[in-house]
Amino acid sequence: MNHPLVKDLLSLYIDDAVGEESKRLIEAHVAECPECRALLDQLRFEQQTGYDFPDAEPEVEPETGTPPFIRRLKRLILRAAIVCVIAAVAVLAVGWWGGREASEHEKRLEDQELIRMDSDLLFLSPPQEQMFRESGVRLEFLEKQFAHEQSHIRYRYTWDDPDIDYVREDIYWPNHLVVMDLTHNKVLERLNNTSSTGYHQDEEIWELEGIEHDTKEVGVQLPSVAVFYKPEPFRKDLNQQGETEINQTIRIHNIEFLIEKAEVSRDYITIHYRQLEDIKKVGLYVLTFQIADREGNQWSKEPLIDFQTGKKRKATIPRYKGMKDPFQLQVEHGVLIIPGLHYKYSVSQS
Predict the structure, then answer these.
(1) Beta-ladder partners of 330
(2) Which of 334, 298, 300 is nearest to 317 (CA)?
(3) Which of 10-24, 48-62, 122-136, 223-237 has the highest mean predicted lDDT (pLDDT)?
(4) What is the DSSP-derived secondary structure letter of residue 52?
(5) pTM (2 decimals)?
(6) Residue 278 burial (CB < 10 Å; 0-12/13-18/19+)?
(7) Residues 6+ apart with CB under 8 A from 123
(8) Rounded distance, CA 82 to CA 8, Å?
(9) Angle 68-78/3-14 helices, nearest 10 degrees?
(10) Are 229 and 162 a contacting pair, CB within 8 Å?
(11) How many CA atoms lie within 13 A of 21 on its CB side?
(12) Is 27 left (phi over 0), alpha (psi -120 to 50) or beta?
């Protein structure tokens, strides 16, 4: 087995999620490869010494470090093609992927993008339990059912902080629940999602396909969640065309931002800004903006956000039909992005 392939399969190997023939080939390669031996030692160390995730309810077993099922999920989705290379020796392990229709292929691409973005967020952000604690938002599981006919999960976000305007999950494409049958290394198909928003709360219900009769455990990755904080007043008149220098700092939820400039073109209004606080200490915040035109109409694209993790950010607002210049730039919200939490559930078979 070649070196790059072994490196990609090591996380599956330590979770005992590869076939016997693949395991034999991996072990033979690791015995002769110092780099892969070092990587395997590092993965085992992370598995044994990572930080704890918070309990959402008593039945949930939080994972440590990067949860094993999430590592497995990343490999199954992001490296599906690599797994298919060894289909001759692990047909059962990858058979699930081969029987899906084109629509399932599109869903897998969505999952691939979601896992990539979630991985970026986890790397950049402080631990999720710290972010929830400091955000003012609470997460409560209301119901979960994993059955052969159909599965579903219901949970709720609540908050009391008057500076929080609202909390949402559907903030960028894609952002959704991922549930994995750990017994069969299978991602459950999502059938439906409904959201209901009330006073200081947002409730989510996810309906999924059923599990197998012999499924013992499932892993759940919640969607990333966005907390929309009210800003301090900010208004800036923009030049009708071209660039407007701003260079003004604002503070939202004790996080400081520098709004550098705005550019007005024929099709877009682009705002350049920076988050001045360290993302690894406070989390990823993005700014959303709205445009007031000369007739007092306000234009925005919330709840969608421009998801960016670099120091220099750009927010864009299309020049919608009916917008009449000159324009005034206003800050709509400061948005904290909390990466999706991970849990493992034991399944009771009736």
Answers:
(1) 235, 290
(2) 300
(3) 223-237
(4) B
(5) 0.69
(6) exposed
(7) none
(8) 8
(9) 140
(10) no
(11) 9
(12) alpha
